[in-house]
Design brief:
Blueprint (H helix, E strand, L loop, with lengths): L13 H13 L6 H14 L3 E5 L2 H11 L6 E5 L5 H9 L2 E5 L10 H7 L4 E7 L8 H11 L2 E5 L7 E2 L2 E2 L5 E5 L12 E5 L2 H10 L21 H11 L2 H18 L6 E2 L7 E2 L5 E5 L4 H10 L16 H5 L7 H9 E4 L7 H15 L1
Parallel strand pairs: 2-3, 2-4, 4-5, 5-8
Antiparallel strand pairs: 1-9, 6-7, 6-11, 8-9, 10-12, 12-13
Helix pairs in contact: 1-8, 2-8, 3-4, 3-7, 9-13, 10-13
Length: 362
């Protein structure tokens, strides 16, 4: 059997090990300088004035909504995403309003957004899916015109850019450092913002409503990042540009190898955007996806379906009375297939992957 090619494979090296050992030996395991240093470095990376480390990407989204004063009303978000994008809206006390995505770039469909804005709309959560940012210029204009809060779900977009600006620098950004992300702390998240008031509120929310020990101003949570996570994050942040460059290079090679394959559509990189390929996602036509999956399995190659069921079709939301018809999201759930292009994938691996996809489509 050929060596397994995993769909994701976190790169943890001696720098990360040394960082964790350093923290453990220091005796300061929470709320110390490591977290502060990681936040400052991440702010510089994204080009923002504030970064607030959290326990994971979901708590980053939840905190961001609350820090922007959203505890009721409606929040628009795409259904073709991980459930946390919408679940965080429910946790904050607001109502998710689902919109469709574009077929070409998988990002939020702004025509559908404009149709669904009402007097109760408070915010838009735009998901930079698979590592490519949404049309932020138009989205900013929509939010400004209607007085809406702009929230970037950038949990898959570390280092992605739109017109030279980083993900997380347009609205309030939310990042995840889960094990499969372009950079990881195992679990962990980050909020980015240029708004001093939002940053101050977020820092209270993640720390039981307090910025000074035992002085609780509001009802908050324990959404803090540990010092061990922050130390790993700082080491990973030093490598993220290299990780992303490898993903972009591997994506280009695989696209070239698959350029003559029939019955599949390759990922589109839209003009003016830097796609960091958290996932390399093709569309497989004519109900042949399972055939491709079987070929990949038989050749010990990992794959992913992100996502097999849009959020509005999940049992939770059906039980809440959602009856949306979102044709592009529903179609994509039947067609998308993600292939390995992470930094550990070699050119030989890419050749194997392409060969299997082509064989299955013949």
């Amino acid at each position: 059997m050929a060596t397994m090619i995993k769909i994701s494979d976190p790169i943890i090296e001696q720098e990360e090990v040394n960082a964790v050992v350093r923290v453990l030996k220091s005796g300061t395991l929470a709320r110390g300088e490591e977290t502060k240093n990681f936040e400052e470095a991440f702010s510089e990376f994204c080009g923002v004035s504030h970064s607030i480390a959290t326990s994971n990407g979901t708590t980053a989204l939840h905190t961001t909504l609350l820090a922007n004063g959203i505890t009721n009303g409606e929040v628009i978000s795409p259904s073709f995403s991980f459930a946390a994008s919408a679940n965080s809206i429910l946790h904050a006390g607001a109502k998710p309003v689902f919109v469709d995505v574009n077929y070409d770039d998988f990002c939020i469909n702004l025509d559908d957004v404009e149709k669904k804005i009402t007097g109760n709309t408070k915010a838009i959560v735009a998901v930079h899916l698979y590592g490519q940012m949404c049309d932020m210029k138009r989205l900013e204009n929509i939010c400004e015109e209607h007085g809406l809060v702009l929230i970037e779900d950038a949990c898959q977009a570390h280092g992605a850019e739109f017109s030279g600006k980083h993900a997380g620098s347009f609205g309030t950004g939310c990042f995840s450092f889960y094990a499969t992300k372009n950079m990881t702390t195992g679990e962990g998240g980050m909020i980015t913002t240029g708004d001093d008031a939002v940053a101050e509120e977020a820092r209270k929310i993640i720390n039981h409503g307090s910025t000074v020990a035992y002085d609780n101003k509001i009802l908050g949570y324990n959404f803090r990042m540990t010092e061990m996570q922050a130390a790993i994050g700082s080491a990973q942040l030093m490598k993220i540009n290299g990780f992303n460059a490898a993903r972009i290079r591997n994506a280009a090679v695989l696209s070239e190898l698959l350029s003559d394959a029939e019955g599949i559509e390759l990922p589109a990189v839209m003009p003016g955007r830097k796609h960091v390929f958290h996932q390399y996602t093709i569309k497989v036509s004519e109900g042949k996806r399972q055939k491709v999956i079987n070929e990949l399995k038989n050749n010990n190659i990992g794959y992913g379906i992100y996502y097999p069921k849009p959020i509005h079709m999940q049992e939770l939301y059906l039980n809440l009375g959602y009856k949306d018809l979102l044709p592009v999201s529903e179609r994509l759930s039947e067609e998308v297939l993600s292939l390995p292009i992470h930094p550990r994938v070699t050119e030989d691996d890419l050749g194997r992957i392409a060969q299997c996809v082509k064989a299955a489509m013949r």
